[in-house]
């Protein structure tokens, strides 16, 4: 019999193996011969009876199914929030042409909402949320905040020189940067299938958005720098949130937002002042009032906060590469809708690029599935003993 405590969700999992099922509740505070300390009664007890062999396999499959359903729902929410924010931003920017100022407002909104959420969670669950010393923040969180702001700033700057389709085409290289940094930081092991799938997706998206008359060298360089920042941002974020030996203890999306947001604000403010400072001081529009600007920025900030929570939640359960692929799927859907709405014709090159993208995504999914099957086989090799129990315990902690 084994007991696993999950501090985050405040559950006590009690697993009964084999002959332990014959034992019973002897007295108050004792369960199957194991004394339950008083503190355990602050948790919800989840009692799971498992026999050897088949029971372990079935329970593992149930955990896997539940985890996949959670990922699907979070990914669906991410798509809804991301697409909604995109359309909302496009509509607002038509009359208020200051994207960096708007993004800075979103950062402030996310910081305030994040702190309020932390205070509420501390009050509801008790105890203090994680607070990192300034040294760890400078070493690990500063690169994330600076790269996120540079990504946005460089992207907006690049859009002055290139079209949206060329921007999407060039930004597709971000998956290659994420793959490279994942290898360098030991987040991923070198696998030929992973390299091939990443290359297929990047090259496919490049061909899908190809227009031979759109090339601008300066704009292309700016987009590639933005893609580099994207790679650094998400690989370092994955390192912080997933690695057990990480010196940080940030395992919660809201904690991550609260700690990263100040550095993002510090990085975006100089960019907003340089590119939009003079224009915003002389801005005057008869249909736009100051309260309207603040309301739109605040609402957009709420959408951005919710979307970022789903991004970090996906990153916590998957990887930077998978998260980037989910973003590329969203871009493909958006571009296909644009082709349909504006009656743009897809060339043979565009069609070939779409096929390569889909092929790369299928290959990535098959690689992930093969890896999970391999891990399950390792776990199923033993039908008895402590190794089997420890494997199950680790899976429950990951999926709880």
UniProtKB/TrEMBL annotation:
Localization annotation: Membrane
Q: Is Hydrolase found in the keyword set?
A: no
Q: What is this protein called?
A: Solute carrier family 35 member C2 (inferred by orthology to a human protein)
Q: List keywords of the entry alphabetically.
A: Membrane, Transmembrane, Transmembrane helix
**GO CC annotation:** membrane
TM regions (residue ranges): 71-89, 95-117, 138-159, 165-187, 194-211, 217-236, 257-276, 288-309, 321-341, 347-367
Superkingdom of the source species: Eukaryota
The Sugar phosphate transporter domain sits at: 70-363
